[in-house]
Amino acid sequence: MSRFTIVSLTLSLFLIPLSSISTLAAPNPSTEEIVECEILIVGGGLAGSAAATEAILAGRTVCLTEITDWVGGQISSQGTSALDEAKKQRSLLFFPRGYKQLRQNIQQYYGKLNPGECWVSESCFMPKDAHNLLWDMLQKAAKRGKGSLKWFPRTIVKELNISDDGKIIEEVIAIQHAPAANTPPLNTEPLSQIIEDIYSYENSSRLTKKIIRFSPVGEGVGSVGSVGSVGRGGEGENSQQPTANSQQPDWFVIEATETGEIVALADVPYRLGLDPLSYSNPSSPTSTGDPYCTQGFTYTFALERTEEPQPQQMPSFYPRYQPYYGYDPNPNKANFDFVFTYRRISSPTSGEKSGFRGIGFTTPTPGDISMQNWVWGNDYRPGTVEDNLIYSRSQLEQLGQLDRGGWMGGLRPEALRKGEELALGFYYWLVAGTTDSQLGEGIKTIAPNHRFLSGLDSPMGTVHGLSKYPYIREARRIIGRPSLTYPNGFSVDEIDISAKNYRDEYYRKNLSPRMYRNLWKALAGLEMPKVIAGEISVEDIKKRTRSTIYPDSVGIAHYAIDFHPCMTFSPPEKPGNKEREGVRRGQGSSYPAQIPLRAIIPQKIDNLLVAGKTMAASNIAAAAYRVHSFEWSSGAAAGTTAVFALEEGIFPYQLVDDLPRQEPKLRQLRRRLEKNGNPTSFPDTSIFNLDWDDWRVW
Questions:
Q1: What percent of the chain has pLDDT over 70?
Q2: Distance, CA of 123 to CA of 212 (rounded, Å)
Q3: In Å, what is the CA distance from 109 to each residue of 22, 138, 411?
Q4: N or C: which end of the chain has fewer CB within 10 A?
């Protein structure tokens, strides 16, 4: 028998009727607790955890909120516990210090780095273990740095109190939820069932709420959930508290949510979905942009290989999603063991060496556990105004979510529900399905020797067996501040990282002559002076073989530009539906990239920084800036920047407002990051080094 609780897939996803939940927000609620922070981090994923780690190591008082009850995001609550890493970067272990420590802790805990013997990564492991390992890291960081970590699980931000001039977040109002008396434990219902209740001020028959007001140190009283001690000293230099005045920050808020909730609430300029075609994003499939076509989201789940066939019961909603499921358009992936071992997260007994179409793996044995995250399986990919997951700004306005007290998370509950159903149906397709939407009949065979793992003691830690939160690949992305060189606002774009051949006939034919010339001027690199002087024609320009190098780089990222495109029609599971045409054109090889400080500084709000997928990047560039080590690097950069700005009594934008002229304090910040083991550039990074082919991904 399985060591996990098994729950039938035929059980309703909705265990508590929606009619019992009050979804109307009560404005101006009574605050039940005031909590002081020097740095408030909203979102406990990898980026938020990295920011917290660096800040408490520097001796700061940090508040960390998270909608679920696990830290770690991708590796825990989202169930994507298979580290996406580039081969060259991994071979040199060229990662931020906290990310390297996490990898070491995984290896020490299991006795090996890859306890699942997966083949997509060098490290696949159990999501619930990832939470425990990362939480232990945070506790140790607080003790080592003599900082204070105030942890608020099951907590969402509801409102922001912003100064009259619109530049400072003065207070943040949050809601922490707990199960009401005589109701099931949390993680019983899937997110779609409970999200509206979570964001409501009022108690319901299911949840009780605590209203928390976060404020700067010295402006409130009381704190909860401390780890370590409040103090100074830490690992930061010059860690004295600046004298408070209107020109100096007294705290910082770091946006590290998965979808950019604070970006939306603060109403700073941002982009969502596809960007308009331009010389800097020449592979975009649309001339106008499309905020509704974002990358697909995924509810992961775990299944276990068994000795004997198991009874498999078809969910009532399975026929609706059956037309979507398939192995892949590439027949080289049409093999069950290939898919099972792809992200196998536990393999207590190694099987015999095997393989499929050139990919080697060990044969699954009874007791092996696989986590599923598959494009034509549990990827839900809405892409129209009728079904998109992350509401656009205009949709938020129409729904009243930007009104005072009206914020309800900014996500479409119906899209979440369908994503949950798609995932549960995909399990049934894997073990009992015989159709294939991509390869036709006669390919898919049944695999009944498996069971779906669910229960609070299961890998995902939920009664329903799905991840606590969906794996989000794309969020609201800020537009950085305008400058002389970026008049429309700073952004990392496709041509800043892509290794694509822009001499391809597609670009010659589909870009206007002016856009094509501007593209090649931007790619000229060291030849730019000759191009400007008219000494070299556009056709003679040699494309630079590296990514853009930024003087304000505060972190690193290295991954291919990888898309899980939205579908063309609504609903995504519609029979015969296809991926949005042209979205994958931007996909492909990329060079190792940097995280500019300008990409994590939003417009308008001076004491707000962003970390993770909300940085200023185009849709195409963001497809590479979304994996595990990037999230950690961006979080470490945001946390260190907030600490440095508090020490210096300045705002982050003041570190870059004179670029391209020299910025002495910017150099100090970058030196601190490097000294603390958080790289800001890759080895031998220089505009004169054009031999970057060894670093290319894909």
A1: 92
A2: 38
A3: 43, 16, 36
A4: N
| pLDDT tens-digit map of 568-599 | 999 999 999 999 999 999 999 999 999 999 99
Neighbours of 111 (CB within 10 A): 7
Question: What does DSSP say about strands 39-42 and 61-65: parallel, antiparallel, or unpaired?
Answer: parallel
| Burial environment of residue 445 by CB neighbours within 10 A (0 to 12, 13 to 18, 19 or more) | exposed
End-to-end CA distance of the chain: 42
Asked whether the beta carbons of 33 and 452 are under 8 A apart, the reply is no
Q: 342-352 pLDDT, tens per residue?
A: 999 999 999 99
Beta-carbon count within 10 A of 165 CB: 9
User: Of 44-58, 268-282, 353-367, 555-569, which gets the smallest average pLDDT?
Assistant: 353-367
pLDDT above 90 coverage of the chain, percent: 84
Whether 536 is in a domain gets the answer: yes
- Asked whether residue 525 is assigned to any structural domain, the reply reads yes
Residue 515 lies in a domain: yes
Residue 511 belongs to some domain of the structure: yes
Tokens read off for 204 = 């319901």
Residue 660, preceding peptide bond in cis (omega within 30° of 0): yes
Report yes or no: 203 and 32 within 8 Å, Cβ to Cβ.
no
Does residue 211 contact residue 175 with C-beta atoms inside 8 Å? Answer: yes
Cβ atoms of 520 and 280 within 8 Å: the answer is: no
Q: What CA–CA distance (Å, rounded) separates 157 from 214? A: 10
Q: How many CB atoms lie within 10 A of CB 380?
A: 29
**CA atoms lying within 13 Å on the CB side of residue 288:** 4
Amino acid making up residue 135 = W
Alpha helix locations (H) across 68-219? 87-92, 97-110, 127-145, 191-198
Q: Are 275 and 479 in contact (CB under 8 A)?
A: no
pLDDT in tens, 261-297: 999 999 999 999 999 999 999 999 999 999 999 999 9
What is the domain range of residue 507?
500-544
pLDDT tens, residue by residue, 190-215: 999 999 999 999 999 999 999 999 99
pLDDT at 220: 55
> 274 and 284 in contact (C-beta within 8 Å)?
yes
Place of tokens 């400080």: 597
What's the domain count of the chain?
A: 1
C-alpha 159/C-alpha 171 separation (Å) is 9
pTM: 0.93
Is the CB of residue 185 less than 8 Å from the CB of residue 5? no
Helix/strand/coil (H/E/C) assignment for every residue in 506-559: HHHHHCCHHHHHHHHHHCCHHHHHHHHCCCCCHHHCCCCCCCCCCCCEEEEECC
The answer to whether 638 and 254 are in contact (CB under 8 A) is yes
pLDDT of residue 457: 97
> Other CB atoms closer than 10 Å to residue 573's CB: what's the count?
22
Q: Is 636 helix (H, G, I), strand (E, B) or coil?
A: helix
